[in-house]
Specification:
The chain has five helices and no strands. It is mainly alpha-helical and 103 residues long.
Amino acid sequence: MLPLPHCREKDIQKDAQLIGEILGQIYRDKRLYRCLCDSVSIRPERLRLLYQVVTNYDRMSPEALREKVYRYGNLIEDEELLARQMFLWLMRLLESVEKSNGK
């Protein structure tokens, strides 16, 4: 993966916290969850993985994080642009975690 100098660890942590808050709100609000799933082609298992990653990435081993990120990527189908964008963000997060752990 290419180095991303503009993507500092502090920014990644802020993004992860914000995404976690957004996903938490989606999970709590059944109407919002159904509307999002119906309109944006979101697979519940992919959403659960995303939630697990952004709320626990700092407590996971790099290997466990890598496994969840790649499992998320394997669930992307066809032209799911939002899912692809989130996968790229997750790859940057993984890169940051691995870098901070000396890999």
